[in-house]
Amino acid sequence: MKYASLPRLILATALMFLAGAGLLRAGCEGGVNLLTTMPSDKRAEIEAVTMAAPFPQGNLWQATRDGQTVTILGTYHLDDRRHDAIMQSVAPLLDKAGRLLVEAGPQEVRQLKAHMAREPGMMFLTQGPSLMEQLPPDIWKKLKTAMAARQVPGFMAAKFRPWFAAMTLSAPPCMALDAARENGLDMRLMKLAAEKSLSVQALEPYDTLFKMIDSLSAEDQIEMIEMSLQMESHIQDMTFTTAEEYFAQNSRVIWELTRDNALAQASDRPGFTKADITADFDLMEKVMLTERNAAWIPVIEEAADKGTVFVAFGALHLSGDTGVLHLLEQKGWTIERLPL
């Protein structure tokens, strides 16, 4: 499968998402909202497609069925000062819950760290040719420069697995990514739950995403690097756009913007057609969103059988025909948007 349609934008929004921006170091503030600078007819087209999807706007929801209540919050995984207001709004709702469900709880984080310590090959090339040897010289030179801007020396970058290199490029050089994750909305919720002695449960096993990534061929992963490098000059603006639209409760539009950007690259990629790109995009949507959403529904319903539940996960999982909200609605839940 050719991942021409899955550049850094997919990694930034699907893998880290709703990741987008985060805690940025000095000099990384600001950017341009790409939706505000595109031609008005193109923006109208993207917004029309966005609004045609089920539940296209809104971050905070309530699902009810037969006396059961589930509060659902679409999150932004990295830090932002605007999370303070969100936490003030949702804290009373968390007080009413018997447990908190998140993509990865404290136990899963510990399991992941232990696994990575035992098996560094998950993220690094421990045998075989390095990236310097796998990549064409011009691509390696660009990668080395981009990694150096992110404080990763060339000798270390050469040992990154291709997907990990591409994911590293998904954050602007000015972003303190590790620190940002520690104070993202999901982590803030888990810290508050711990203060309240509230049970925290994971929606999926700790290694779910790694298994998905591991299913990609070496060729696919190498192409991710090339496409990420092509987007290097636009990364901060895409990061800024993602953040702005999340806090405007318009996360669905980021997915459609990503799709549109991917299709626009068809003319720049010899040998690739829009049909190829659409197929690739649909596959990534299936793997990163659709299949995971479907797997979460029985977990949510089982938890709801035991009492009121607060569920938090990346905002991209909310909307669409295969989004969590629509799937719950199909199971007989009444879905209501809550003010935030």
UniProtKB/TrEMBL annotation:
Pfam families: TraB_PrgY_gumN. InterPro entries: TraB/PrgY/GumN_fam, YbaP-like. CDD domains: Tiki (cd14789). PANTHER family: CYTOPLASMIC PROTEIN, CYTOPLASMIC PROTEIN-RELATED. This is TraB/GumN family protein.
